[in-house]
Fold these 4 entries.
Entry 1:
Amino acid sequence: MHKVLFVDDEPNILEALKKTLRKESYEFLVAHSASEAMTILKRETIQVVVSDEQMPGMSGSQLLAIMRQERPQTIRILLTGHASIEAATRAINDGAIYRFLTKPCNALDLAITIRRGLQLHELSQAICQLLPLAQAQTRLLRKIAKHKPNVIMEALEGEPALVPDKVLEIGPLTEELLAEFVRIREFFQEHSAVMAT
């Protein structure tokens, strides 16, 4: 089951979020401070973190900036009641946040944002797992094509003219897939403040 961590120093806000999102299909974890959130992140695998900006000790954007370094695969969402372009830009640049939402935010918007964040996390994990495998298969196919070309030709039903091209296409395609994922993620990060307004 997916785990989503909500960080806010106001217990009544956390309770309201829990009540609002009770029908969602993920485990709802709470932290009342950035330091408590860091403790939870050390013992739990968290897919999405939703943090308030204004907290004593460490702001939400500072927490998400640390998380970017320590848990880069975790999707980061920032909530703030004091929205400004400067704050949004800092949060996006320092914490590479996925979305920037102003408080009070619509419950449906928050639910959809979290679901999309979970989908993005799953896509990121799938790419991270598949890319090394695809790269290894490409290296293996290149070795086979070089040393035993007949094996590949037989597998391709005797189309020798296509063998080198097909083998050499796999590597660049996997690299293009990863590059496209990075571009999509950067697009969401760059436009998160705009989409949140």
Entry 2:
Amino acid sequence: MRIVSRRSSWRAALAVGMTCALSTALWAGGSGFGDDDHDHENEGPSYFGFVKDTNGATIADAKVTVAIKDRGGVITRTDALGAYRVPGFGKEIDPSAVLISCEKPGYKQVRVLRRTAQDADIKVPIETECTLQRA
């Protein structure tokens, strides 16, 4: 009888562990919910990147502002890995008019580095890395 209950307990623990692992993987990616609801044909490139300190360590929970010159923008926060992602604006928005800045209490922004190919497709996400220094 003990062998049967141990096997049942082991199987239940395995099922719970697999459920947690799969749900964490879906949550970490941040995509999948509502992605099909958007009109992707009218979207420009999305923006993503990392916020790091001057030593190269990522900074969690930093505030990232992705703004369009003279129009407004979107504010998001970095995840536990220091990463952020913002969906694209309309394709009529020139990516050079999109400004990205980062901040966190106790830090000051020292650099913003945008990585993009000159001949990149409009649908290719644009990576921008912010570097913050302890104030």
Entry 3:
Amino acid sequence: MATRRKANPRLVKSYRTYTSDELADCLGIHVNTVRNWMAVGLEPIDDQRPYLFRGDVVRAFIERQRANAKRPCAPGELFCLRCREPKRPAGGLVDYEPMTETSGDLLGICPDCDAVMHRRITRHQLEALNRILDVTTRPRRCA
């Protein structure tokens, strides 16, 4: 089975128990990932082998891991996918490209890796952002 980049907690049944192999198959991940999760806090039902995991505990663990991995952007920051963290754009310069009447995309350059960063914002957020960054508005593209 092909492995997935991220485990989907909704694939795990809450009222079922899983062995490491069953859990890996259910989530489409490698069994070593389950073992690594045990090392960082996933609790089996007991210490006997084969290890058994309660579905609701696994779901809570995966959701907690996802919540801890989130990196919300502060005002004036855009998320750089290459660096995997929010950053202020180089020189404080961004372009606003309207997509609809009420929202659009901010485009900026990452100061570290020179990649293009994007962030979706509303017109209301744009007014507040004008005080923090130097915003240039592009004309709206025709669809």
Entry 4:
Amino acid sequence: MLRKKYRLTRTKDFQRTVREGQCYSNQMAVLCKHPNGLPHSRFGFSVSRRLGKAVVRNRIKRLLREVIRLHLDLVAPGWDIVIIARKSIVGANYWTVEQAVTELLSRAQLFVAEKESA
């Protein structure tokens, strides 16, 4: 589970990120980012009712949260990030969703450079 400090919870924050932020998209999702001035990044997930009933929408949100949780240490701090699911994500497996989200994070230049090991 993604800890509360890493989640966007207020509608105002979602709207600001989508309206004022930079957005990147692929077949499965849209990623919008906006600086937040905090020492960590926060994430929000949006899944429309058009994608399916509650069971389907909740599964999609769980998949997206898990991808972010596992890649959290690689994401640059200081951003509010909203991921909006698209129709093609319905029925996708974890690996496909992970590939789509990591591609968006990479295109948005949100991955921290790998630290060299001594």
